[in-house]
Amino acid sequence: MTLLEVKKVLNATCVTQHCLDARVVETACGADLMSDVLSHDKEKAVLLTGLIHPQVIRTASMIDIVCVVFVRDKIPGQDIIDLAEINNIPVLCTKYPLYESCGLLYKAGLGVISSE
Amino acid sequence: MTKELITITPDLTVRQAKELMRTKEISGVPVIDQDQELVGIISVADIFRAMEGDNLDAKVAEIMTKNPVCLSEYDTVGQALSAYRQYKYHRFPVIDDHKKLVGILTAGDIVARLSQLLKIDQVEDNTEKKGPVNFTTHNIEYPIPGNNFERAGEAAGTIKRIMTNLGMNPSVIRSAAVAAYEAEMNVVIHASQGLLTAEITPEAVTITVTDTGPGINDISQAMKPGYSTATDEIRKMGFGAGMGLPNIKKSADEFSIESSPQGTILVIKILAK
Question: What's the pTM?
Answer without folding.
Answer: 0.63
